[in-house]
């Protein structure tokens, strides 16, 4: 988008009630309605064949879209109107083979390559956590190895499940093995719960991950945690992956592998806001499984997380555009 074009924003909810019409993320236009080009493309990946417990995250993207009808155009927490700063559009779903994980992983990577080649950043709505691997592959082709901030109850650096390399518990081990992550800037946030053994932690540390547990967030507070994460990330290209089970089941019951003792949605949103100066190149929100949700608690939390991430991206896009035009 050039500076002369005004982004096409969401449907005006004072004219068309927010519950009317088909749901796109935040009631934004579809990507094809803005000529196939957007600064940020919100895209769904309805895939959950990689789960180890409850299925259902294939319905997560559309549940988040439905819950996002209530998002308003001005974000006071970041003093920004994200959808006016840059063109954000809903790119629909990447349709993948539910019966063949390896093929699905390839399809996701190809679709992400295509979207990134248009200049868009990706705000992906899962789907289970398997999808982070092809998304990271694609992002790394464009930016080189990226810093990773991974919000999750789980490490997701396990090796294989039933001999399968691509599952929702293994994407980040594969990513480290493939050299697509910048191993000097890898962090898990919200980690908790029983593991298979102490070795899980040793393996994870060897890969380069730092861990901020959900108890650390509670004890040390969101500002200190955000400062620490910002320092670790620096100005590296950053990918943020949010498994909604980073939140306590009270804040996100609608997920496949819930663990007690998690962060609140307020803590998650505040940490994200504290990262507004980071160079966020793409992000995902995964593992929303609406069948176990109540009153859209989980999908509302996920829609707000995606809104904060989108705000960070659009602020950076607008700042970069201004700087370019000043030259
Ligand atoms: N929810 C995600 N992504 N991973 C959980 C894997 C935990 C397990 O099955 O042991
Ligand atoms: Zn998880
Ligand atoms: Zn996960």
UniProtKB/TrEMBL annotation:
<dbReference type="Pfam" id="PF00491">
    <property type="entry name" value="Arginase"/>
</dbReference>
<feature type="binding site">
    <location>
        <position position="245"/>
    </location>
    <ligand>
        <name>Mn(2+)</name>
    </ligand>
</feature>
<feature type="binding site">
    <location>
        <position position="152"/>
    </location>
    <ligand>
        <name>Mn(2+)</name>
    </ligand>
</feature>
<dbReference type="GO" id="GO:0008783">
    <property type="term" value="F:agmatinase activity"/>
</dbReference>
<keyword id="KW-0464">Manganese</keyword>
<dbReference type="GO" id="GO:0046872">
    <property type="term" value="F:metal ion binding"/>
</dbReference>
<dbReference type="GO" id="GO:0033389">
    <property type="term" value="P:putrescine biosynthetic process from arginine, via agmatine"/>
</dbReference>
<feature type="binding site">
    <location>
        <position position="243"/>
    </location>
    <ligand>
        <name>Mn(2+)</name>
    </ligand>
</feature>
<keyword id="KW-0479">Metal-binding</keyword>
<dbReference type="InterPro" id="IPR005925">
    <property type="entry name" value="Agmatinase-rel"/>
</dbReference>
<feature type="binding site">
    <location>
        <position position="156"/>
    </location>
    <ligand>
        <name>Mn(2+)</name>
    </ligand>
</feature>
<dbReference type="InterPro" id="IPR020855">
    <property type="entry name" value="Ureohydrolase_Mn_BS"/>
</dbReference>
<dbReference type="InterPro" id="IPR023696">
    <property type="entry name" value="Ureohydrolase_dom_sf"/>
</dbReference>
<dbReference type="InterPro" id="IPR006035">
    <property type="entry name" value="Ureohydrolase"/>
</dbReference>
<feature type="binding site">
    <location>
        <position position="154"/>
    </location>
    <ligand>
        <name>Mn(2+)</name>
    </ligand>
</feature>
<feature type="binding site">
    <location>
        <position position="129"/>
    </location>
    <ligand>
        <name>Mn(2+)</name>
    </ligand>
</feature>
<protein>
    <submittedName>
        <fullName>Agmatinase</fullName>
    </submittedName>
</protein>
<keyword id="KW-0378">Hydrolase</keyword>
<comment type="similarity">
    <text>Belongs to the arginase family. Agmatinase subfamily.</text>
</comment>
């Amino acid at each position: 988008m050039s500076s002369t074009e005004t982004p096409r924003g969401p449907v005006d909810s004072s004219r068309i009630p927010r519950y009317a019409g088909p749901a796109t993320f935040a009631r934004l236009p579809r990507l094809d309605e803005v000529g196939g080009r957007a600064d940020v493309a919100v895209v769904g990946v309805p895939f959950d064949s990689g789960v180890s417990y409850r299925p259902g995250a294939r319905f997560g993207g559309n549940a988040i879209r439905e819950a996002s009808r209530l998002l308003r155009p001005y974000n006071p927490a970041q003093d920004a109107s994200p959808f006016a700063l840059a063109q954000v559009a809903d790119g629909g779903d990447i349709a993948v083979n539910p019966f063949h994980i390896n093929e699905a992983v390839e399809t996701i990577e190809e679709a992400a390559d295509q979207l990134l080649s248009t200049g868009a950043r990706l705000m992906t709505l899962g789907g289970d956590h398997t999808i982070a691997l092809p998304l990271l592959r694609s992002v790394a082709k464009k930016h080189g190895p990226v810093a990773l901030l991974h919000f999750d109850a789980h490490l997701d650096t396990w090796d294989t499940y039933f001999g399968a390399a691509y599952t929702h518990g293994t994407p980040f081990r594969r990513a480290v093995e493939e050299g697509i992550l910048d191993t000097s800037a890898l962090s898990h946030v919200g980690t908790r719960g029983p593991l298979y053994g102490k070795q899980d932690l040793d393996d994870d540390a060897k890969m380069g991950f730092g861990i901020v547990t959900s108890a650390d967030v509670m004890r040390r507070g969101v500002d200190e945690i955000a400062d620490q994460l910002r320092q670790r990330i620096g100005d590296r290209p950053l990918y943020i992956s949010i498994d909604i089970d980073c939140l306590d089941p009270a804040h996100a019951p609608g997920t496949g592998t819930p663990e007690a003792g998690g962060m609140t949605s307020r803590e998650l949103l505040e940490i994200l806001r504290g990262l507004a100066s980071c160079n966020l190149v793409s992000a995902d929100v995964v593992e929303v499984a609406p069948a176990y949700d109540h009153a859209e608690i989980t999908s509302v939390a996920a829609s707000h997380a995606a809104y904060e991430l989108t705000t960070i991206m659009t602020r950076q896009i607008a700042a970069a555009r201004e700087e370019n035009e000043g030259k």
